[in-house]
Amino acid sequence: MKNLDKVVYMRKNYLALLLIFTLSAVSLQSQVLVLDGNYQGRDIYVQNPFSSSGVGFCVYEVRVNNEVTTDEVNSSAFAIDFNMLNLKIGDPLNIEIIHKEGCDPIVINPEVLKPISTFELTSITVDKNNVLKWSTTNEAGILPFIIEQYRWNKWVKVGEVQGKGTENLNNYEFKLVPNSGNNKVRVKQIDSTNKPRYSEVAEFNSQSYVVNYSPEKVKKEIIFTHTTMYEVYNMYGNIVMRGYDKTIDVSTLKKGKYYINYDNRFGDTFEKK
Q1: Residue 71 sits in which domain range?
Q2: Strands 170-175, 131-137: pairing kind
Q3: 20, 82, 217, 228 - which has most CB atoms within 10 Å?
Q4: Number of domains within the chain
Q5: What is the pLDDT of residue 20?
Q6: Is residue 1 included in any domain, yes or no?
Q7: Strand residue runs (E) in 27-76
């Protein structure tokens, strides 16, 4: 009977130790480094340190779009090779680098997953309703198109449209608010390199009313003859107000001289009393 109790006791201890070992093993293998982006035709490189125990390497599995890769991760550095996945430029990527606790793999070049501005403009026009229309091909990843109008001797952002990020023909539209007379407009994208990529300039004439304002000496409010985009600068060249309206409440401005840009005019002045 004593021998039987001893066997039962030893079996319980064995099962407890096995459970502790299993939980420890799971704990050592419970970290995931996640990367999201778009395929740009380049591989990802990973520095892979030893595990905290000193036995084996940190990373033990890599998944791409929920599929286990065949990359050789048992080395101090390895590449995540996308060639076998039949990806197209711009395709979405979700990468899971599964590693043990107590160590941290380092992704050397994560920027290669960020979209690159590669669009090719096929057309850009403005119709009679002041709608800007443009078409592109060969977009590699989703990036916004920033719409700019040439106003007051500079390019001014007036809107943004999300790009579709596909290689086929993509069509876009944006409703413009033109100034009177000649107008110029373009679109651009800025990717992770921070270098803007511009379209050609579309130029058109608008029959919008010429805008004027009053008074030139003002306490509370400037009134335009028609609704317009405007900017107000102080004597030091700092912008203090901007907007699109038929009136400007200047009651909070300090007394002094100010410069105002509006419609197709720039550098006009008013005095806040």
Answers
A1: 28-113
A2: antiparallel
A3: 228
A4: 3
A5: 39
A6: no
A7: 31-38, 44-47, 59-64, 67-68
